[in-house]
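Memo to structure team: turn this sequence into structure tokens by end of day. - J.P.
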Amino acid sequence: MPNLTILVFEDDESWRELLARYLRQSGFSVVIASKYEEAMQALSENTIALATVDIRMVDADSQDMTGLKLIRTLAERAIPSIVLTGYPSLDVVRRAFDYNILAFLTKMDFDVQQFKLLIKKSVSETLREQQTWNATVIRQRTDNLKVFISSTI
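Reply from structure team:
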């Protein structure tokens, strides 16, 4: 499995470390962020393949739901995300799924096996998309090269 980078966005240090430790043991690079600004910096400095996001994180100054804000940013960048929260509510679940998250997990009944399956599924899809994109780019460049060669002969 290639070394893909996963962003863990979590304000609870024990959960942050638990998720990061599991992901590293599974062969992934992990970037952790406990604040929205840290997550944005991680996105600008790394190629993130997947993110786990605590959706109920709130900015102390603005009272913005930074977890939801991050999910929106990830969706805009076509980065899949898995939501993990200790405080699920129907409104938050509905809002999260508006941004095409892969799954909504609760900390109360967190299942490591389910988490592993979600990570594996997401990584497989990401790799498949990258391979399709690479094949498309190679095909386009080959076609452009053929046109260039035929126009110079």
